[in-house]
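Problem 12. The chain below contains 84 residues. Write out its predicted structure in token notation.
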Amino acid sequence: MNVKVMNLGLIAMAVALAACHSTEPTRSVEWFIEHPEDLKAAIARCNGNPGELAATPNCINAKRAQGKITWEAKGVIRVEPLKF
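Solution.
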């Protein structure tokens, strides 16, 4: 295969992958708690594609918010935000 054709193919793949990158803002655990409809949508989106989304900041924060709501409502545990 011609080297120029291969390079063009690689460039096209890189552009396609860059276009797929999410520009969605990162939401905090507290934000998700204050916006239950968005939390529900984020959880559904994360569960629908865990292979690609499970490790994204919004999925992590949405799942922590869901856990905080669930466990604090039961009076079992207080979940603190992660500190980096």
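Discussion. Residues 36 and 49 are 20 Å apart (CA to CA). Students who got a different answer should revisit the alignment rule from Section 12.3.
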